[in-house]
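Example 9 (inverse folding). The structure is encoded as follows.
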């Protein structure tokens, strides 16, 4: 029998991974579309990669609220299940 806390952690991890992968995929698709539309400006592919990386980092990990929530979640998940469950 699976414990409820283990189940919730597993489901949360799977959903987080799924949303991350699909979000990155969509971001790359949009970046490629914009790169193709603006190819006449002559920007290098390396410049585009740098800009997309900056946008993704600023919108996720480097956003103070997201970073605080991520740290809180990791702190809670690092506790042993015996310390969380009554």
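The amino acid assigned to each position is listed next.
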């Amino acid at each position: 029998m699976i414990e409820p806390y283990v189940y919730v952690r597993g489901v949360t991890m799977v959903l987080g991974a799924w949303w991350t992968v699909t979000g990155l995929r969509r971001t790359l698709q949009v970046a490629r579309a914009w790169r193709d539309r603006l190819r006449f400006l002559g920007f290098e592919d390396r410049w585009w990669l740098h800009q997309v990386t900056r946008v993704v980092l600023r919108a996720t990990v480097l956003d103070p609220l997201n970073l605080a929530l991520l740290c809180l979640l990791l702190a809670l998940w690092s506790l042993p299940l015996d310390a969380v469950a009554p």
